[in-house]
Write a structure and sequence with these properties.
about 10% helix; mainly beta; about 60% strand
Length: about 140
């Protein structure tokens, strides 16, 4: 019984901690069209982007952990590492992975729950799918 109580208390505490973190959902528009989700961890955040790229002949998932360089401000500069998984849907398609980084500027409006971002994400893809790709994107997200 004591173990069940401890496990329930830990699960409840974890749920409150996750719910207390700021989140945002929206889109990134660049060479890809991406659905974007951000989850805050203090002043830093994890960004997950699911996109359609290369004229809708590829699907990719990119995860970036960004470190805030101006915490506590409406205007933010962030940088962090990124990983990328992709699948090309053309007749000679395939799957692959890459690593890279993300560097961006973000503004969160104080009066409405919206943020705008402009970021640059260079990626190195392994294998024969293009050794280097860099894309800039404009993002708009609803904060909740």
């Amino acid at each position: 019984m004591k173990k069940i109580f401890i496990i329930a208390a830990l699960m409840l505490g974890f749920a409150f901690a996750v719910a207390a973190q700021p989140r945002a959902i929206g889109a990134r528009l660049g060479s890809d069209l991406e659905l974007s989700y951000q989850h805050g961890f203090g002043s830093n955040f994890l960004e997950a982007d699911l996109g359609l790229g290369l004229a809708f002949h590829a699907v990719d998932l990119t995860l970036a952990y960004d470190f805030s360089l101006l915490p506590g401000s409406d205007f933010n500069i962030y940088v962090g590492p990124a990983v990328n998984l992709f699948a090309i849907t053309e007749k000679n398609g395939g799957v692959g992975a890459g690593i890279g980084a993300q560097l961006g500027l973000e503004y969160s409006f104080p009066s409405v729950p919206i943020n705008l971002s402009l970021d640059w994400r260079p990626l190195y893809h392994f294998g024969g799918y293009g050794a280097y790709w860099a894309g800039a994107a404009l993002g708009i997200r609803y904060r909740f």
